[in-house]
Design brief:
With 236 residues, the protein is α+β, with helices and mostly antiparallel strands. It has helices at residues 14-112, 116-125, 139-148, 184-196, and strands spanning 163-171, 174-181, 200-203, 207-214, 220-232.
Length: 236
């Protein structure tokens, strides 16, 4: 059997069906918008955390670098102090070595210095030229002496028998010579030869005095006694 519903039915309004769909769409959009904002927020928080970590690491690195520099400076200072101590010790050692060498050289020179050649020069001055006597002349000094004093010229025919030595002493590179002479002319000739010799340097003016020596025949022999200092320019 066929039943027919004759009761009127309510028509659905067009907007009624669309409203739930719109609400669903709005909800979906809202839901989608909320997820995007949350992701962006999380991203910002992540970047901030990363930046903070980087800044913290840089700060730690700077502090570590400063600490390392401080340690390096301290070590460098200690090294310089050690070097200074080593250099000072080495310098003192070198100074002591130099002093010892100077003392050794002085002793060696004292041993090498001998009056043999100087005494030979004096003996040659007091030897007659006919018997080989002579003076080892320093030509440059001799020319200057003659230019300053024409009376400084040596007399090659001098008889050295008129002068003799009684004492020769050496002190500090100088000779103190004492002797006698018949007269002042003999003493002057001897000093001229000393000034011209290559072996001798500066000479003092001789101190002299006249003396009379009494002999058995009651006759007095007059002569000079004298003393002078002369610098030795060379020994060997």
């Amino acid at each position: 059997m066929i039943r027919i519903n004759l009761a009127p039915t309510k028509r659905k309004r067009p907007g009624a069906a669309a409203a739930p769909a719109a609400r669903a769409t709005t909800t979906a959009v809202a839901t989608k918008g909320g997820s995007g904002g949350l992701a962006l927020l999380l991203m910002v928080i992540g970047w901030a955390a990363l930046g903070g970590a980087g800044w913290y690491l840089l700060t730690i690195e700077d502090e570590a670098a400063l600490a390392v520099r401080g340690q390096a400076a301290a070590v460098g200072k200690e090294v310089n102090e050690i070097k200074g101590a080593i250099d000072e010790a080495g310098l003192k050692q070198r100074e002591e070595d130099v002093k010892r060498q100077e003392i050794a050289i002085t002793k060696l020179k004292a041993k090498q210095r001998t009056p043999v050649f100087v005494m030979y020069e004096l003996a040659s001055m007091l030897t007659d030229a006919q018997r080989g006597g002579s003076v080892t002349i320093d030509e440059e000094k001799y020319k200057k002496n003659k230019a300053d004093d024409p009376q400084s010229e040596i007399n090659p025919s001098w008889d050295p028998a008129g002068l003799w030595l009684t004492s020769v002493e050496e002190t500090g590179g100088k000779l103190t010579i004492e002797g006698a002479a018949r007269d002042a002319a003999d003493l002057s000739e001897f000093t001229r030869r000393l000034r011209a010799s290559v072996w001798f340097g500066e000479i003092t003016h001789p101190d002299y005095e006249r003396v009379t020596q009494t002999r058995d025949d009651d006759e007095g022999a007059r002569h000079l006694t004298w003393k002078l200092d002369v610098e030795v320019k060379r020994w060997n």
